[in-house]
Amino acid sequence: MKIVEHFDILSKGRFATSKTWKKACSDIETAIIATDWPHGAGKFTIYPESGKKRGQGNGVVPIKKPCIKKLKKLGWKAESLPKIAGGVLGTGDLDALYESEFGYIGFEWETGNISSSHRAINKILLALQREGIKGGVLVVPSNNMKYYLTDRIGNIGELRPYFPLWKTIDIREGVFRIIVVEHDETSVDVPKIPKGKDGRAKE
Fold first, then answer.
1. Helix ranges (DSSP H) in 92-167
2. Catalytic annotation, residues
């Protein structure tokens, strides 16, 4: 998978320029690039079918599995996550967490609809404001990639208009970064990414 752009919505204080934050970003970039489909293929190839109609397109939840697996190898916690003191962001709301000398850094790969994205961002921003975490990273698909995924998946096109609002959030120290990802190529020779069978659009 490839990273097409990233946005530091908030970036303030010593942590924002620290080696700790730079290492966390490097870990995340490495893990994203290692994310492939089919799993084990070494690159991310998506079946080119629109997700607008029911039963068509690709699911979302399985996409992040190689990324989380790589983060765990790099020292992040993804299963038995500790409690975060302060803030409203619980570890159950995160895909991975890194404990640094500055505090916690949270990572979330969006697998829900656009409303889910807004909830995740609100939690991250409030946790930053209350110093429950020092860094928060949210991964979302590009406008090109969203076309092939479950309809109304959280995506950069629908989040971008809110950047000016989120930039006004007052924090003492910390970083909130949104990373935009995209498939490497398309092919009808790969299987579709499976969707959940519980009726929820987020899969």
1. 114-129, 143-146, 156-159, 163-166
2. 110
